[in-house]
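Shipment paperwork, digital attachment
Item: protein structure file
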Amino acid sequence: PMSLRLSLFALAMGATALPALAEEVNIYSHRQPELIQPLLDAFTAETGITVNVAFVDKGMVERLVAEGDRSPADLVLTVDIARLIEVVNAGVTQPVDSAVLTADIPAEFRDPANHWFGLTTRARVIYASKDRVKPGEITSYEDLADPKWKGRLCTRSFTNDYNVALTAAVLAHHDAAYTKTWLEGLKSNLARKPDGGDRDQVKAIWAGECDIALGNTYYLGQMLADPEQSEWANSVRIDFPVFEGGGTHMNISGVALTKAAPDREAAVKLMEWLSSDEAQKIYAETNYEFPVKPGVERSELVKSWGEFTPDTLTLSDVAAKRPDALKLIEEVDFDN
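Attachment content:
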């Protein structure tokens, strides 16, 4: 019954039980609720459907498997293609056959079997020191392994999802031998042991510890909006590297419908609304990301970073290479 389902979800969120309401969507999210709240508020205002979010940073798949068909969750929101694929592979999602979603979201940003759908994209780019790196000095991911960058590169751990996805894309464009050599080249160019998150790399460039770093586009937007971090952010520019014979590596935040979804109809309504022009604009602006829907304008700040050519590899192809990419990262013992 609805009241029990709400109590379960409230328990999952560590809250007290909420009163039963007609239509509700419950979300397990890898993304902090405050980042998506403006979106969900707009959806509720428009439809009258209540949305509850539980932030599940770790163990989302295990939790959904354990809950089985008693799960209170209707949707999962994740960052990174690997996490979406992981949820699908665990058998806890169901396909959504929606003409709206297939019309709004380009094929490379959704599952061929309709189990997951991208909502926003982000690029894995180079943060470059405005003072010490000339524009055009670095143009490709392959170039990061060039000895000219010795002692000048900073990065977070390479076993992090975003770097594993990038390595998987290198593997998809080249082969295992090339990718291993590339990883060794990057490792020997490091200014310091991999540490912190993407923002910490920007701080390190500002502090003069290194000249270039890998990072996701949106972190720079978040830093510019933070008075404590804007000085660091203003010391770097975003350069959009490409793969030789390819484009800039993209990743997504996305959504999937759970197999258990107690309110499937309301959940699909929310999925379709998230791909609408209005939602795409709010989502992209709030998070400094790129809308997945073609024709929706980027925010002014994101536009100011410049134009680029997204890579044409499908994210399914990149995700398929992920286990092999992780093995190579561990083989070269990148983080030590």
